[in-house]
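Can anyone check this?
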Amino acid sequence: MLNLFGFGRIGVVIGDLYFVDPDPIPGQETPEQGVRIEVRLLELGTAEGSIYASRPIEVGLPIWRVDLLEDVANIGSFDRVHHHPDISGWEPGEREFVAALSAAPFDWVSERLAAIPELAVRAGFDAEILDPRDVTELRATIPEIIAATEAMVARVRSGELARAPREGDLSSVREGWL
């Protein structure tokens, strides 16, 4: 499942994720599942055709990512929750585990989303890339984003989302949108 909250040039994308790390850190060799949240750049294309034509929307480069993951054998634990504050192009930096994120993930994510200008600068973007109106709208929408995230986490934990790949499908170590 994929949810997108768009604010002009930036968006918040929420998706379910089932992940088998091909090179896990010690103690995290088992599959994990959960919800990934990414702040992404958005590009609005030009409508072609009549004045009523839809405009293309491209979900572009990530600015920041947080993974609300847990071991598939330890549902409800948030034992693999981390974020990626350093992103270079499409590639995330190392997982960064933060005690406050594991203790209160939704509060922590809310605080990070409110600090989007700082996250963008840390990821190597010029702060000017963010329209102040987009930042204001994103901040005002944080309660809705968190509610959507909580609902998706509940659906993952119920087994409805972030399911393992079909047996015999070894084409990917990752299932999900993001």
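Reply from J.R.: I decoded it. The beta strands are 2-7, 10-19, 32-44, 57-71, 82-84, 87-88, 91-92, 174-176.
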